[in-house]
Amino acid sequence: MKISLxxxxxLAISAHASTIEYTTxxxxxxxxxxxxxxxxxxxxxxxxGLINRTYPADKELKHHQSTTQWERFxxxxxxxxxxxxxxxxxxxxxxxxxxNGWHNSAExxxxxxxxxxxWAELNGNSTVTWFDAALTPxxxxxxxxxxxxxxxxIEEQKMHTPDNYFVSPLTRTLQTANLTFNGxxxxxxxxxxAPVIKELFREGISIHxxxxxxxxxxxxxxFPHWAIESGFSEEDNLWNGVxxxxxxxxxxxxxxxxxxxFFGESSKKKSYVSVTSHSGEISSILRVLGHRTFSxxxxxxxxxxxxAEKKExxxxxxxxxxTASAHCTxxxxxxxxxxxxxxxxxPVTTPLVATGY
Length: 357
Prior knowledge:
This protein has 357 residues and is an alpha/beta fold. 27% of the residues lie in helices and 17% in strands. It has a single domain (2-324), classed as Rossmann fold, CATH 3.40.50.
């Protein structure tokens, strides 16, 4: 199946438009280095991965010897933006994965093959619900670790906090962002924690019900003071329980989402951006940014310094592939290394649950 991105997301694509080229600026964070192992990386133990080094802009600070690493890094980013032309800007994206959700626990319990081919297509079992999964107590604790770490850096390193906050519309990311940033004692003059809920920063869209978001009214009811972006549909029009995004399709979506973050009003002065999202979506964002593959554990956060260059040119309508996903209609009989449906329940591509929420 192929579908035009503009038709899928209701996006207007003009015949002549600017495009944005993204580059990861390396040399500032450990997560950019090939020697850093993502499986053992602990952002709280290594200062978000910020490398202890000097910067060219240090010489412009009167007392740079007494400033912290994060103060000097922020000064360097601001200097990059001051010295760059209008079509280039730099931002530090703080990419945070949600804490452990009930769907994560269910996948561990059932095993990945059985989860993918049957259980993930249900709304839950007799014990828990994983449709648009909420955080487990362990996931809540992971988000509070991030909260405490942000507060520690604010107090000890006078760290500049995000100028903008963006959040995926799925429940687990909303809860994670709230636990992470709500109630922080922010530095004087900092931007308030006023997140914008963005559809395009959601997890990769599969037939799993954990990727199916609640409707807009429900989201507003649990976080009534948060902004929901313009054009956000009442129902989830992207999930249908039959087809799934390919990686290429998700990268097109991530590119569109990033394009709505860069080059806004006073954008160069808002160089720190928080994006609370998901493992698959963060992987997609990193691909778009040209960053090395770097998997995040639940609740983890990594910053990435990004250079964005706006280029004028002729834009073309992009077609992206989605695929139908077969699954069992009853629990598989074996799923240690692969899913095997009972012979009386051949794989189908029809949803196991109703799509309206």
